[in-house]
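Q: Here's a chain of 457 amino acids. Please give me its 3D structure as tokens.
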Amino acid sequence: MFQRRRFLFALLFGNASRGWGPSPLSEGGAAEVVGQPDPAKGEAGSPRAAPADALLDELGRKALGWLLTFRNPRSGLVLDRARHDAPVAVRFDKPEMASIASTGYFLSLLPEMERLGLLSGADAQSLAAETISTIDKRLEGVHGLYYHFVDWRSGTRWNDCEVSVLDSAILLNGVMVASSAFGDPISESADRILNRANWAAFVHRDRGRSLLTLGSHPRRGQLGPADVASSEMAMAYFLATGCPNGVSAECWYATRIERGVVAGIDVLNPSHPLFTSYYGMGWHDLEGIVDRRGLDLFSEAGKAVLANIRFCEEEGKRERTYSGSEGGWIGISAGDSPIGYRAPKCVAGDPDGVVWPMTFLAALPWADDVLRDRLPRWKASAAWHVASGPFGLRPFRLGERPWHADDLIGIDVGSFAVSLANHRNRTVWRHWMRHPIAVAAYQRLGLVRSKRNTSNT
């Protein structure tokens, strides 16, 4: 049985018997990654690892530590957020707000925790079984999708929150990964959960179009439509198309394509936060793949990341946070800010000098070269001591109105850890893509290799 106290002690202080190096929860040195290092990718532990690779691995271990620390061992549910400097001691009998999305990331990353040697195969399977049992038997929802936030003790709805289609998609993606990775008997419960999802109950019909809604609320009814083509929205559409109780692929093709210019680059959904350009690709391996419209979400994410970089560099002429003299921090997206949770646009002055580093770290598959340059500069900057903590990098602002977030949010931690796992070893992609629902979704959506990709092979 998984011994949480023993694991966290080892994560904090190192464990020579398992070959762990310096703790990722300390600021000194880079964490040693156990398992099978890939010299080509430069995992920590490889003699060819560059400073940026060691920092990435350290931050990755911190992110995995967050998900394990803030998981209730009695239910398997994971907190939505926790203090940036939170102590490891957590009271599991106290009511706290869990997020179904944080829980989905936790399930998605269990195979990577096993690969890295942070968990044994038996422990990883046990944690998956505990969490999936709660989802199967106790988690509160409607039509097989779930309330956005729940009590982490019981799985019951938290306050007045909505049933969230997108956050349910993250949770169900995690169920698929765990089912593929660990097989029976987990797969039996996972199949019940996935077959229970009645996506057709969340279809919005308007002006001849059928689209998924963003969710529902007991009093307000259906929420607005998920009507734009983005990697974030694709999370729900791919599942809804591939699931047994799903919807027609034409629902995805009813989403609209919006384009605009950000920092001189033509991008998809220019007014949307950065994370929406790559979110679903934590599970969807779409490099070189296009849909029937010719939409290449992988390439579009690369453009959005480049536009974000250029925008921050331009803002660095006015805002100290992004200036080269302070390390050249990058990452304009949605998250906590001095005035609450917000999603600023890449418009001069709108981010108000705030940077969300974890969001940019999650763009690693499209920003590898930039992060290799910037991470050592970030670590050497005075801002590192503001941003860095036991579990990752929090949002902050420098200058005459300094500010920093109190919390880290589970979806930010999880999306980075998933991106790193895929970049290093394709771990999450590999398990998700072989699930029957994923196979059916790709077939029914008519996803194919782009002509450009085919001509280069």
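Q: Can you summarize the key feature?
A: The first helix runs from residue 4 to 13.
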